[in-house]
Write a structure and sequence with these properties.
Blueprint (H helix, E strand, L loop, with lengths): L3 E8 L7 H17 L4 E3 L11 H4 L6 H10 L6 H13 L2 E10 L2 E9 L5 E6 L22 E3 L2 E7 L6 H8 L5 E6 L6 H18 L2 E6 L4 H7 L3 H4 L9 E3 L15 E8 L1 H9 L41
Parallel strand pairs: 1-2, 2-3, 7-8, 8-9
Antiparallel strand pairs: 1-11, 3-4, 4-5, 6-7, 9-10
Length: 321
């Protein structure tokens, strides 16, 4: 039997000064998408509070101030911010995939959050390897986040940006039979060549995995670009690179992509197309050769401290009178 899921991919600008103002944009977008019948809403990479565009155009010696500002605006999990997103998802009965800068004590991480339609946080994962300039900003994730989770819209997996260039990371999700893949990129970065590369990558993953891909990229206004750097030469690196798109398991655009400005893409995902594609080519099933080629995936969370025996909490000793 055919099952239709209405998906929304959001391309909007963050607020580069305020977590609270960016979060307000997220909640408004969920309201708008749900009002238009969306059951799944995908936001850009590290959208709350904003992607660290400064790290792409500023030398490391000049990144201290904006990096510390990002620490102050970053999101902890759980927090009031995650609660509010969860409540909005539950209110509308929608699934949302949100990119955040996650603060875990003294480190920041590129994190993806999957909220189910009842508000449950089904997954928090961290980008396994920050790319190039991003390594000055974020720590590394681990294999525990390479999970596909059951949600109201189906089996949902997620990767961020150039993680899609890691075929084994993608394969880890493919082996878990994802039906919908949520992808996130920063947008407004590198130029038109980046948008072209994103399109190729999204269409290839849809074909290879036999799933739908819902990809969201961000957007910067001209005033925002100028606020990141006044250097007009460097500003060129903060334009283009937008390819918000929804791709079918046959590698086709379900609707024309959004490459400029703000907006929300909508498409009906006919889930019977997943079976139609996999009947011909199931890369982790009848088309696989596991006796020749297989993936070793360590899902153990990375820990800096391993406790080998039960801990006894220290009991505070009151001061004597």
């Amino acid at each position: 039997m055919s099952r239709i899921v209405k998906a929304a991919a959001v391309q909007i600008a963050p607020d580069l000064t305020s977590r609270e103002k960016t979060l307000a944009r997220v909640l408004d977008a969920i309201d708008e998408a749900a009002g238009n019948g969306a059951e799944l809403v995908v936001f850009p990479e590290t959208f709350v509070p904003y992607y660290p565009y400064f790290s792409f155009v500023l030398p490391p010696v000049q990144q201290g101030k904006p990096h510390l500002a990002l620490y102050e605006q970053a999101v902890t999990v759980p927090s009031d911010e995650t609660r509010r997103v969860a409540e909005r998802c539950a209110h509308h009965g929608v699934v949302a995939v949100l990119g955040i800068n996650e603060r875990d004590h003294g480190s920041l991480y590129n994190a993806q959050l999957i909220f189910d339609a009842d508000g449950t946080l089904r997954l928090k994962r961290r980008k396994i390897t920050p790319t190039y300039h991003e390594r000055m900003v974020w720590g590394q994730g681990d294999g525990a986040g390479l999970q596909v989770v059951d949600t109201r819209v189906g089996r949902l997996g997620a990767l961020a940006c150039w993680e899609h260039y890691n075929p084994l990371a993608r394969y880890a999700l493919m082996t878990q039979h994802e039906e919908i893949h949520a992808a996130q990129f920063p947008g407004s970065l590198v130029g038109q060549v980046f948008a072209e590369q994103i399109e190729v990558t999204m269409r290839h993953h849809a074909l290879e995995s036999g799933c739908f891909v819902v990809n969201a990229t961000g957007w910067l206004t001209e005033d925002q670009i100028a606020s990141v750097t006044p250097d007009e030469t460097l500003q060129k690196g903060l334009r283009g690179g937008c390819m918000t798109c929804i791709i079918t398991p046959e590698g086709r655009h379900a609707v024309p992509p959004l490459t400029e400005g703000e907006g929300i893409l909508y498409a009906d995902l006919d889930m019977s197309l997943v079976t139609k594609r996999k009947r011909m080519m199931d890369s982790v099933g009848h088309y696989a050769r596991p006796e020749l080629l297989s993936l070793r995936h360590d899902p153990t969370p990375a820990e800096t401290r391993h406790v080998t025996a039960p801990e006894t909490p220290f009991q505070p000793i009151p001061l004597e009178d």
